[in-house]
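Loading example: each entry is read as two labelled lines plus one structure line.
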Amino acid sequence: MKLIVGGYAQGKLNYVLNRYVTEDYVVLDGGLTVNAQDHGKIIIINHFHRWVKESIRHGGCPETEVKALLAEFPDCIIVSDEIGNGIVPIDKMERDYRERTGRLLVELAGQADEVVRVICGIGQKIK
Amino acid sequence: MMTLILGGSGSGKSAYAEQYTMDIAKGNKKYYLATMQVSDVDKETQTRIERHRMMRHGKGFITIEQPLSISGVLQKMEMTDSDVKAENTALLECMSNLTANEMFNGNIPQSHKVVTDKIIREIQLLNKKLKHLVIVSNNVFEDGIRYDEDTTEYIKALGSINEQLAVMADKVVEVVVGIPLCIYDADIAE
């Protein structure tokens, strides 16, 4: 698995498409469900943080769901905004979202073969 | 010697800072300077404090609670410890809480200038008395939101404090998704 992080609108997906994708791929946006016809393709999870938020909002457990995804697609590419670099929100749900997304990303980074931080389209390989 | 460790919420900066402090303390006395206000804690803050306590458990830190006037820890160190101070290491966790406490302690918020000057002065004092001071601070600067006046003052204060600490520090590390990135090292810098 590869993890790509960075701020909003920094060209993370473009970086992934230019750098890693030479064969058939599919970009999942807002969900982790891979359709049967996409098995065998490179799986790119885009806007991972938004999916985490939706999952929490609906009372789900993103931590468990991510584990299941990795078990089935250990070579996927996960793209996420870094959302922890701001003022701690007053709203509890927003706080949880930031905290849990952060912890999930730390966990994913620990497991990843490669971690890249993208800023203005430039990738810094940090693992 | 001083090290500044920065990171956002949930970035893994605390876990890294604890490990880092243990590595540099090398068996010498090490203090954990806890700045979170414990007088009016809600359940969430309590859970957060508990989580940090669990993380520290068994690592040999001596905890000192100091939500305000951080140089006050010097007196407490002397009271609890007769060892040679020069060998002591302390981990301050974290600057964002200390800054908020200093700013919003009274009926009206202090200006960012007053808060910044007070904290920097006290940190200088503290740093002189310790072999190694490790400070954890927060990156609260990148959400692109324009806040009310009080919050803006707070952001300015923490920004200025981080900037001045970085000048004093021998090493500045940013933790990103649990990975430490060294952004300044006096040994490598020209």
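The interface with chain A takes residues 7-12, 44, 139-145, 147, 151, 154-155, 176-179, 181 of chain B (CB under 8 Å).
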